[in-house]
Write a structure and sequence with these properties.
The chain is an alpha+beta fold. The chain has 4 helices and 6 strands. The chain folds into 2 domains: 69 residues, ACT domain (Alpha-Beta Plaits); 77 residues, Alpha-Beta Plaits (2-Layer Sandwich), CATH 3.30.70.260. The termini are close together.
Length: 154
């Protein structure tokens, strides 16, 4: 790894996906406001492309906050016909490199690492300087080793 490159990990992560969400910024902001009111920190956020008037929103929280979210997602299911999908006991691997914005192919290396071990990755989010990957706890060790190997080849 280069000097300005790092890999960090976090365990006990829950992935929450809300299917059939209205494509309405007011509704979406109220969802995240309510989650904040529950005292729950949201980390990775990803939106699927709109399907007509609806979208899917995925985000991660700590496993310890699952109880707070379950009550909220049950209310969403009843009031707004939103279908929640919950997956706990995941791990996040974050690859950070200040030079990533100027280094074509980093995402390709990470996806090749997944492919080499057939990782069940749940969600991937990116910025100019990092790639965050959520994997199952069962795939965590092998995925971390594969990513470390791929990044070291820089």
């Amino acid at each position: 790894m280069r000097e300005n490159e790092s890999i960090s990990t976090t365990s006990e992560i829950t992935l929450v996906t809300l299917l059939n969400c209205p494509v309405d910024p007011d509704f979406i902001s109220k969802v995240f406001e309510k989650i904040a009111d529950l005292g729950v920190n949201v980390d990775m956020i990803s939106f699927s492309p709109n399907q007509g008037g609806s979208t899917a929103i995925s985000f991660t929280i700590m496993d310890e906050d699952l109880g707070k979210i379950l009550k909220f997602t049950s209310a969403l299911r009843e009031k707004a016909q939103i279908k929640p999908i919950i997956s706990s006991n995941n791990c996040k691997i974050n690859i950070y490199d200040e030079n990533m914005v100027q280094t074509p192919g980093m995402a390709a290396k990470i996806f090749a690492a997944f492919s080499s071990i057939n990782t069940d990755f749940r969600i991937v989010t990116t910025s100019d300087v990092d790639i965050s990957v959520l994997v199952t706890e069962a795939d965590y060790n092998d995925t971390l080793k594969a990513i470390q190997s791929a990044v070291q080849k820089n």
